[in-house]
Design a protein that fits this description.
211 residues; Rossmann fold; six-stranded parallel β-sheet; 6 helices; 12 strands
Protein backbone atom coordinates (compact mmCIF):
# COMPACT_ATOMS: atom_id res chain seq x y z
CA UNK A 1 0.00 0.00 0.00
CA UNK A 2 1.37 3.44 -0.94
CA UNK A 3 1.48 6.37 1.46
CA UNK A 4 -1.24 8.07 -0.58
CA UNK A 5 -3.54 5.07 -0.33
CA UNK A 6 -2.92 4.81 3.40
CA UNK A 7 -3.76 8.48 3.98
CA UNK A 8 -6.94 8.34 1.88
CA UNK A 9 -7.94 5.14 3.68
CA UNK A 10 -7.63 6.84 7.05
CA UNK A 11 -9.65 9.83 5.82
CA UNK A 12 -12.42 7.52 4.54
CA UNK A 13 -12.47 5.63 7.83
CA UNK A 14 -12.75 8.84 9.82
CA UNK A 15 -15.68 10.01 7.66
CA UNK A 16 -17.60 6.76 7.48
CA UNK A 17 -20.27 7.95 9.96
CA UNK A 18 -20.69 11.37 8.30
CA UNK A 19 -23.78 11.52 6.06
CA UNK A 20 -22.99 12.38 2.46
CA UNK A 21 -24.75 15.30 0.79
CA UNK A 22 -24.86 16.50 -2.76
CA UNK A 23 -22.15 18.97 -3.81
CA UNK A 24 -23.21 22.47 -2.94
CA UNK A 25 -25.92 21.31 -0.55
CA UNK A 26 -24.30 23.25 2.29
CA UNK A 27 -23.12 26.52 0.74
CA UNK A 28 -20.91 28.78 2.84
CA UNK A 29 -22.10 32.40 2.84
CA UNK A 30 -19.26 34.54 1.52
CA UNK A 31 -18.94 37.83 -0.28
CA UNK A 32 -15.80 39.40 -1.65
CA UNK A 33 -14.78 42.67 0.02
CA UNK A 34 -17.40 42.21 2.74
CA UNK A 35 -17.19 44.76 5.56
CA UNK A 36 -16.11 43.13 8.82
CA UNK A 37 -18.35 43.61 11.83
CA UNK A 38 -15.90 45.48 14.07
CA UNK A 39 -17.41 47.74 16.71
CA UNK A 40 -14.37 49.97 17.23
CA UNK A 41 -12.12 49.78 14.17
CA UNK A 42 -9.64 52.41 15.39
CA UNK A 43 -9.42 50.95 18.88
CA UNK A 44 -8.82 47.43 17.62
CA UNK A 45 -6.23 48.66 15.12
CA UNK A 46 -4.29 50.44 17.87
CA UNK A 47 -4.42 47.38 20.10
CA UNK A 48 -3.19 44.98 17.42
CA UNK A 49 -0.41 47.28 16.20
CA UNK A 50 0.86 47.65 19.76
CA UNK A 51 0.83 43.85 20.11
CA UNK A 52 3.52 43.81 17.41
CA UNK A 53 5.77 46.00 19.61
CA UNK A 54 5.24 49.08 17.48
CA UNK A 55 4.75 52.50 19.05
CA UNK A 56 1.35 54.05 18.30
CA UNK A 57 0.28 57.64 18.85
CA UNK A 58 -3.24 58.86 18.18
CA UNK A 59 -3.37 62.53 17.19
CA UNK A 60 -5.64 65.13 15.67
CA UNK A 61 -4.74 66.58 12.29
CA UNK A 62 -3.57 69.84 13.91
CA UNK A 63 -1.21 67.93 16.18
CA UNK A 64 0.41 65.83 13.46
CA UNK A 65 3.53 67.98 12.84
CA UNK A 66 4.44 68.05 16.55
CA UNK A 67 3.71 64.33 16.97
CA UNK A 68 5.86 63.53 13.93
CA UNK A 69 8.75 65.54 15.36
CA UNK A 70 8.42 63.62 18.64
CA UNK A 71 8.25 60.27 16.85
CA UNK A 72 11.52 60.99 15.04
CA UNK A 73 13.22 61.46 18.41
CA UNK A 74 16.92 62.15 18.05
CA UNK A 75 16.97 61.47 14.30
CA UNK A 76 19.14 63.98 12.48
CA UNK A 77 18.77 62.91 8.84
CA UNK A 78 15.52 61.44 7.51
CA UNK A 79 14.22 60.60 4.07
CA UNK A 80 10.73 61.32 2.74
CA UNK A 81 9.00 60.42 -0.53
CA UNK A 82 8.56 63.24 -3.01
CA UNK A 83 4.76 63.30 -2.57
CA UNK A 84 4.70 63.61 1.22
CA UNK A 85 2.74 66.74 2.33
CA UNK A 86 5.34 69.34 3.31
CA UNK A 87 3.12 70.70 6.11
CA UNK A 88 3.64 67.46 8.04
CA UNK A 89 7.30 68.44 8.50
CA UNK A 90 6.62 71.97 9.76
CA UNK A 91 7.65 71.25 13.38
CA UNK A 92 10.99 69.60 12.61
CA UNK A 93 14.00 71.42 14.03
CA UNK A 94 17.61 70.43 13.52
CA UNK A 95 16.59 67.62 11.18
CA UNK A 96 17.91 67.33 7.63
CA UNK A 97 15.10 66.16 5.37
CA UNK A 98 16.24 64.31 2.25
CA UNK A 99 13.68 63.93 -0.53
CA UNK A 100 13.95 60.68 -2.45
CA UNK A 101 13.64 61.92 -6.00
CA UNK A 102 17.00 60.58 -7.28
CA UNK A 103 16.58 57.85 -6.27
CA UNK A 104 19.00 57.31 -3.40
CA UNK A 105 21.13 54.17 -3.35
CA UNK A 106 20.72 51.48 -0.71
CA UNK A 107 23.95 52.62 0.95
CA UNK A 108 22.71 56.22 1.07
CA UNK A 109 19.39 55.10 2.59
CA UNK A 110 21.20 52.99 5.17
CA UNK A 111 23.13 56.07 6.31
CA UNK A 112 19.90 57.91 7.17
CA UNK A 113 18.25 57.71 10.59
CA UNK A 114 14.68 57.17 9.50
CA UNK A 115 11.90 57.55 6.97
CA UNK A 116 8.46 59.19 7.08
CA UNK A 117 5.68 57.90 4.82
CA UNK A 118 1.94 57.95 4.49
CA UNK A 119 -0.05 54.71 4.08
CA UNK A 120 -2.80 53.31 1.88
CA UNK A 121 -4.80 51.11 4.27
CA UNK A 122 -4.77 50.02 7.90
CA UNK A 123 -6.38 46.68 8.83
CA UNK A 124 -7.87 46.46 12.32
CA UNK A 125 -8.21 42.69 12.82
CA UNK A 126 -4.60 41.96 11.84
CA UNK A 127 -2.96 45.24 12.90
CA UNK A 128 -1.45 45.52 9.45
CA UNK A 129 -0.51 48.64 7.48
CA UNK A 130 -0.43 48.41 3.70
CA UNK A 131 1.60 50.71 1.47
CA UNK A 132 0.63 50.85 -2.20
CA UNK A 133 3.61 53.08 -3.00
CA UNK A 134 1.74 56.09 -4.25
CA UNK A 135 3.65 59.38 -4.30
CA UNK A 136 3.22 60.01 -0.54
CA UNK A 137 4.69 56.58 0.25
CA UNK A 138 7.52 56.34 -2.23
CA UNK A 139 9.29 53.24 -3.48
CA UNK A 140 9.62 50.06 -1.43
CA UNK A 141 13.27 50.61 -0.43
CA UNK A 142 12.29 53.66 1.63
CA UNK A 143 10.23 51.58 4.04
CA UNK A 144 12.73 48.70 4.19
CA UNK A 145 16.25 50.15 4.60
CA UNK A 146 16.21 52.94 7.26
CA UNK A 147 16.20 51.77 10.89
CA UNK A 148 13.13 53.82 11.90
CA UNK A 149 9.86 54.03 9.97
CA UNK A 150 7.35 56.69 11.02
CA UNK A 151 4.10 55.89 9.22
CA UNK A 152 1.09 58.21 9.15
CA UNK A 153 -2.30 56.49 8.87
CA UNK A 154 -5.58 58.38 8.69
CA UNK A 155 -8.62 56.97 10.49
CA UNK A 156 -10.61 57.05 7.25
CA UNK A 157 -8.05 54.62 5.80
CA UNK A 158 -8.87 51.95 8.40
CA UNK A 159 -10.88 48.85 7.49
CA UNK A 160 -12.04 45.90 9.55
CA UNK A 161 -10.39 42.94 7.82
CA UNK A 162 -8.28 41.82 4.86
CA UNK A 163 -11.06 41.30 2.23
CA UNK A 164 -12.20 44.90 2.67
CA UNK A 165 -8.60 46.08 2.37
CA UNK A 166 -8.14 44.20 -0.89
CA UNK A 167 -11.11 46.03 -2.38
CA UNK A 168 -9.49 49.37 -1.56
CA UNK A 169 -6.16 48.28 -3.03
CA UNK A 170 -7.63 47.15 -6.33
CA UNK A 171 -6.74 50.33 -8.20
CA UNK A 172 -3.08 50.13 -7.14
CA UNK A 173 -2.87 46.50 -8.22
CA UNK A 174 -4.47 47.31 -11.57
CA UNK A 175 -1.91 50.10 -12.04
CA UNK A 176 0.91 47.61 -11.47
CA UNK A 177 2.18 49.12 -8.22
CA UNK A 178 3.65 46.79 -5.57
CA UNK A 179 2.08 46.36 -2.14
CA UNK A 180 4.04 46.26 1.11
CA UNK A 181 2.26 44.72 4.12
CA UNK A 182 3.65 45.82 7.48
CA UNK A 183 2.73 44.08 10.73
CA UNK A 184 4.99 45.67 13.32
CA UNK A 185 8.76 46.19 13.17
CA UNK A 186 10.75 43.71 11.11
CA UNK A 187 11.59 40.67 13.23
CA UNK A 188 12.48 37.00 12.97
CA UNK A 189 12.86 34.08 15.39
CA UNK A 190 14.29 31.64 12.87
CA UNK A 191 17.60 31.12 14.69
CA UNK A 192 17.23 29.20 17.98
CA UNK A 193 13.82 30.89 18.48
CA UNK A 194 15.59 34.11 19.53
CA UNK A 195 13.72 37.21 18.40
CA UNK A 196 15.93 39.51 16.34
CA UNK A 197 14.54 42.81 15.09
CA UNK A 198 15.56 44.79 12.04
CA UNK A 199 16.55 41.84 9.85
CA UNK A 200 14.20 42.33 6.91
CA UNK A 201 13.27 45.96 7.42
CA UNK A 202 13.07 48.74 10.04
CA UNK A 203 13.92 47.78 13.61
CA UNK A 204 11.54 50.44 14.93
CA UNK A 205 8.03 51.32 13.73
CA UNK A 206 6.13 54.35 14.99
CA UNK A 207 2.55 54.71 13.76
CA UNK A 208 0.73 58.04 13.92
CA UNK A 209 -3.03 57.51 13.68
CA UNK A 210 -4.61 60.78 12.61
CA UNK A 211 -8.25 61.41 13.48
Amino acid sequence: MSAREEILGRVSAALKDVPRSAPGANPVPWAYAAVADVADVAGLFLERVEDYRAVVTRVGSDGLPAALATALGDSRRVVVPSGLPTEWLAALQGVEVVTDDGPLTAAELDALDGVVTAAAVGIAVTGTIVLDHAADQGRRALSLVPDLHVCVVREDQLVGDVPEAMARLGAAVAAGRPLTWISGPSATSDIELERVEGVHGPRRLHVLLVG
